Each structure stands twice: as structure tokens, then as C-alpha cells.
């Protein structure tokens, strides 16, 4: 009954002229945009209240520096209903008030139409990696009368252009065009700095990234054949031959493959410590076959902060690249303090230097060498 009544009120508002199509110069009018998946959507020209849904969907809105008071509903995963032992998302660590914003649904990616209507949102932004949710978006829009704008989330390594287009689209809608441009320029500048430092060089050693998360936490078998730090630093990715990857870059490999590759270095993504039975670090310590790996025997196992937590933490991946760069190319990164550099990146991208908070949530193991007693 409440849902029906709210729809009736919304219909009255439309007929009363509260939501109309006016001239482009009218601040109370409507504009038509094309979202990240080609849907044409008519939206308020200057929205004051928005709702956001999708895995890690608040990430880009924090990147853009929007006023969180303008967000009236968030995805279940970003709300306080999602009980997590450790928060591995810099955008959330930097903005704990996000947890106090009401949830728009009872599970990841789910929209409760009643809650959406009650929130007062003028636009619902729906994040995703494909157009598979377009029908859902259209249905929500039809049932509530609230426009739904879909935006792209994915891996900045393989889909930078799509993410940049999404940031520019969101910036245009929310009055953050310059911030979107500055953010893209910053990402480009960081990558240019990394590439310049290793121009004409190759590390020579093979390196494996293990413990990468995707739809949950994984052990040493979770990897990323497109891992950003390796790609920009001319580092041989031991898993580079793997072609089947998720939209975040994740791939699962067999134990036999890792033993065959026998990498010179192993980098452990610390999201793994939340995996069953302790994840990659426990496996490396206790599995006799892993103890024979060259990287383990030579004590060349190091840790980095989580690449993925409810989608890709691109700012963390940039920070990790400086740590790995200093590890593989010490002369070229002599001037870099990886922790300070990480906080410089976090401050620009999410607004706060959250390295210590993040490290505390991974047992203070960030950016360390791991030694295994033989």
C-alpha cells in the first residue's frame, strides 16, 4: 500500500509540473544523457539528491569529491548492514560517514523500490561491468519514475577508456567536470612517472601476484595476468600466459602451474588473509611443495595492499606499483618512500591519507618481506 501511495504521489508531482522538460538553460529542467551502456536517460539538470547501487559503487563518487550529504541511499555493501571484519576499501576508510547513509536494498546490487522512493533520490546511479542489468534498470525506472543512470566499473588496466568516460559522464551530471578531468590527468601522470623510471629497462626476473580477491577471498591460486604494476614496470608476469580473466583482472590457476612457473618473486595481495584457512601466506608456510619454490627458498616473498575489494581499488594499485618498483628497480625508485607515496596518492584520490588504517586492517603486514623458517 505504501509503495502504491508513493507512486501516486510521484504521479501527481509529475502532472503538477515538478518534473518537466524545460529549456536547457532552465536549472529546474531536464536534460537527456547517454549513460555508459548506451541508454538515453532524461534526468534533472542539477540533481540535489542521489542514490547509488552496485558493488563498490560509492568509489567513483568519492573520487569525484561529491558532497556526501547529497547521497540519500547507498548499496547494501556500502552500508552498516554489511558487517565486515576488515574494511579494505580506501574510499570507505576515508569517509566512514558513508556507513550512516541508508541502504537502498537488502543485498549487493539489489534495489528496493519502496526504499528508493522514500529516500527522495532524484537519480539512481547503477554501477556494473556490463549491460546485463539494463533491463533491471529500465524496470526500476518504469516502476518508480526515478531515472536510472548506469555507469561502468572495471579494471583501469584493461578498460581505462571506459572508466575515464564514466568519470567524465558522472562529473558532467554532478557538476564535477573539472575534478573528473583532474583525476584522469592525475592517473595519467602517475602512470607516466612509473613508465619513465623504467624506460628501456626490464627486471629480468619473473614475478607472481597471488591471493587476489574476486567474489570473495582466495589463496595463492588467485592471480591477475594483467596486474597493473607489472604491466607499467616492464616486469614479467609469471601468469601472463593466462587469457581467461574476470572484469577486475582476476584469474584462478592450478597449483601445478605455479610450481611449473617457479617465479623469482612472489607478491602476496593481503586480501588473502581473510580467505579460508588463512590464505596464501599460510599455504606458502605450510605446503611442502610451495616451500621448494625459488621465491620462497630465496626469501623473495613480499606483501602489498588489496587490489580488489568490492571492485578494483585503483588508487591502491598505483601505490603498490611504487612499492614493487622500489623492490625490483631500487636505483630508479631510490627517492621513493612507498608508504609516503601511498598516502600522497590516497590523499589526492579519496581525500585522506589512509595507509595506516588500511594496513591495520591487514594485520599491519603491508609492504613487508615475508620470511619462512625452513
Question: What's the helix and strand layout?
Answer:
Layout: H1 2-15, E1 30-34, E2 40-44, E3 50-53, H2 59-63, E4 71-73, H3 90-93, H4 113-119, E5 123-128, H5 134-144, E6 148-152, H6 156-174, H7 177-197, E7 206-210, E8 222-223, H8 228-232, E9 236-237, E10 251-252, H9 255-261, E11 265-269, H10 280-286, H11 294-297, E12 301-304, H12 314-328, H13 338-350, H14 355-360
Parallel strand pairs: 3-4, 3-5, 5-6, 7-9, 7-11, 11-12
Antiparallel strand pairs: 1-2, 8-10
Briefly, what is this?
This protein is of the alpha/beta class and 374 residues long.
Architecture of the largest domain in CATH?
Answer: 3-Layer(aba) Sandwich
Name of the top-level CATH class of the largest domain: Alpha Beta
**Quick check: average pLDDT?**
89
CATH superfamily of the largest domain: Nitrogenase molybdenum iron protein domain
CATH topology of the largest domain: Rossmann fold
How much beta, percentage-wise? 5-15%
How many beta-strand elements? 12
Using the CA coordinates, give the radius of gyration.
22 Å
Strand order in the largest sheet:
4-3-5-6
The first-to-last residue Cα distance is 68 Å
Helix coverage percent of residues? 25-40%
Q: Can you tell me the overall shape?
A: globular
Number of self-contained structural domains: 2
Helix/strand-derived category reads alpha/beta
Order of helices and strands: HEEEHEHHEHEHHEEHEEHEHHEHHH
Amino acid at each position: 500500500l505504501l509503495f502504491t501511495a508513493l507512486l501516486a504521489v510521484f504521479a501527481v508531482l509529475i502532472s503538477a509540473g515538478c518534473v518537466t522538460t524545460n529549456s536547457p538553460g532552465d536549472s529546474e529542467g531536464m536534460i537527456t544523457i547517454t549513460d555508459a551502456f548506451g541508454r538515453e536517460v532524461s534526468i534533472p539538470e542539477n540533481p540535489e539528491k542521489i542514490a547509488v547501487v552496485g558493488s563498490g559503487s560509492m568509489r567513483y563518487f568519492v573520487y569525484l569529491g561529491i558532497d556526501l550529504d547529497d547521497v540519500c541511499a547507498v548499496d547494501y555493501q556500502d552500508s552498516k548492514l554489511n558487517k565486515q571484519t576488515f574494511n579494505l576499501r580506501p574510499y570507505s576508510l576515508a569517509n566512514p560517514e558513508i556507513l550512516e547513509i541508508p541502504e537502498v536494498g537488502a543485498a549487493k546490487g539489489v534495489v528496493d523500490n519502496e526504499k528508493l522512493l522514500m529516500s527522495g533520490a532524484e537519480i539512481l546511479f547503477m554501477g556494473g561491468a556490463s549491460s546485463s542489468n539494463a533491463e533491471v534498470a529500465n524496470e526500476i525506472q518504469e516502476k518508480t519514475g526515478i531515472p536510472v543512470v548506469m555507469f561502468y566499473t572495471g579494471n583501469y588496466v584493461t578498460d581505462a577508456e571506459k572508466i575515464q568516460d564514466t568519470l567524465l559522464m558522472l562529473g558532467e551530471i554532478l557538476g564535477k567536470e573539472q575534478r573528473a578531468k583532474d583525476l584522469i590527468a592525475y592517473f595519467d601522470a602517475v602512470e607516466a612517472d612509473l613508465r619513465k623510471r623504467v624506460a628501456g629497462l626490464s627486471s629480468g626476473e619473473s614475478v607472481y601476484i597471488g591471493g587476489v580477491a574476486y567474489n570473495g577471498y582466495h589463496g595463492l591460486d588467485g592471480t591477475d595476468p594483467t596486474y597493473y604494476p607489472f604491466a607499467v614496470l616492464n616486469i614479467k608476469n609469471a601468469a601472463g600466459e593466462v587469457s581467461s580473466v574476470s572484469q577486475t583482472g582476476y584469474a584462478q590457476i592450478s597449483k601445478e602451474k605455479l610450481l611449473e612457473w617457479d617465479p623469482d618473486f612472489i607478491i602476496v595481495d593481503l586480501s588473502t588473509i581473510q580467505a579460508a584457512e588463512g590464505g596464501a601466506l599460510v599455504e606458502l608456510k605450510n605446503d611442502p611443495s610451495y616451500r621448494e619454490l625459488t621465491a620462497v627458498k630465496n626469501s623473495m616473498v613480499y606483501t602489498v595492499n588489496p587490489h580488489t575489494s568490492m571492485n578494483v581499488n585503483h588508487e591502491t594499485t598505483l601505490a603498490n606499483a611504487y612499492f614493487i618498483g622500489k623492490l625490483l628497480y631500487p636505483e630508479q625508485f631510490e627517492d621513493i618512500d612507498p608508504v609516503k607515496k601511498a598516502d600522497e596518492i590516497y590523499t589526492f584520490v579519496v581525500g585522506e591519507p589512509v595507509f595506516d588504517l588500511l594496513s591495520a586492517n591487514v594485520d599491519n603486514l603491508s609492504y613487508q618481506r615475508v620470511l619462512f623458517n625452513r
